[in-house]
Hints:
- The protein is an alpha/beta fold.
- The chain has a single domain, classed as 3-Layer(aba) Sandwich (Oxidized Rhodanese, domain 1).
- Helix content is about 30%, strand content about 15%.
- It has a 5-stranded parallel sheet with strand order 1-5-4-2-3.
- Helix 3 (about 45-50) links the parallel strand 2 (about 35-40) and strand 3.
- The protein starts with 7 loop residues before the first helix and ends in a 17-residue tail after the last strand.
- About 30% of the residues are buried.
Amino acid sequence: MTPLKISAAEMVATARARIEEVETKDAISMVGREDVVIVDLRDVRERERSGYIPGSFHCPRGMAEFWVDPESPYFKEVFGQDKTFVFHCASGWRSALTVATLNGMGFPCAHLREGFSTWEAQGGPVTRS
């Protein structure tokens, strides 16, 4: 196997150095606010297994770039709103990479630093289907 030029962990560290990170306690206080959209990048099976943040919008990670781009045939109106967007995944790795990419596209957003992994333990509300 050819060695990688950069590891996934290095990519995440590079992304985190240039994006806005939101701490779990701060994100908990954002739940239910009209000016905030919390975006869940996790796979649908993760949401079914672990639950999800009430009112969060589910956007599969592989579609994020297309759903935020108004010129894309896949654009979702939720991303055309003048709101604060906070993306999350399970541990903060996928969301860091996604937010770095979206910021590079000119889409302002942040991510939940620790992801969903510590959400419930820190008192965050969870909806289970």
